[in-house]
Amino acid sequence: MYVALKHLHLTAVALSFTLFVLRGVWMLIDSPRLRRPWVRVVPHVIDTVLLASALGLIAILHQYPFVHGWLTAKVAALVVYIVLGSIALKRGSSKPVRAAAWIAALAVFGYIVSVALSRSPAGAGIW
Question: Which of 50, 77, 87, 89 sits between 20 and 30 A of 3, alpha carbons compared?
Answer without folding.
Answer: 77
